[in-house]
Amino acid sequence: MLKKLGTLTLVLGMMLAVPSAYAAAKPGAPAPDFTLTDVEGKEHKLSDLAGRYVVLEWVNYDCPFVAKHYKSGNMPALQAKWKEKDVVWFSINSSAEGKQGHFETAALKERMAKEKAAPTAYLLDTDGTVGKLYGAKTTPHMYVINPEGGLIYAGAIDDKPTTRVKDVETSKSYLNAALEAGMAGKPVETASTNAYGCSVKYAK
Hints:
- The chain is an alpha+beta fold.
- It contains six helices and nine strands.
- The strands form two sheets. A seven-stranded mixed sheet has the order 2-1-5-4-3-7-8, covered by helices on one side. Strands 6-9 form a two-stranded antiparallel ribbon.
- Strand 4 (88-93), helix 4 and strand 5 (121-124) form a beta-alpha-beta unit.
- The chain is globular, with a radius of gyration of 18 Å.
């Protein structure tokens, strides 16, 4: 009995020792604040963007699920569409050095041009701190934050969890739906979905 209690205590202790930063951000709660540097060396702090909608897109250009949305032109088109409506769009890369999706600066800029990527900024999260803060599991993994700093959507970009480019045309865009509802002052009908894609290539 004592042995069992000791094991239970150890397990509970391990659970309590897990940093809260590793818990996923939930729609309906405030979006966790963060500061990251972009590919140009400029710092961006989420809380400085109060009053504007913000989209977070976890990205890894070498992931076939991400490639689907860039080869089809879907992701660049979404970036351009919502930026025109004064939405801030951050592409965030949490791939660790030496892992898929991580690029040195010059190579990254070339790849962004090749993919016709058009985010407000491409943010570097090499140590994975912000990815784990939000609970980002896949690429792509999308989040929408309203002007009050609340998270109103988290999950998949759409309802077609495939790598087939042609599926983009017939998909339902959860991202578009969340932004359109929020801007119309309506509740987001689907505020959370299971994100699909490649696993985020964290250091560990």
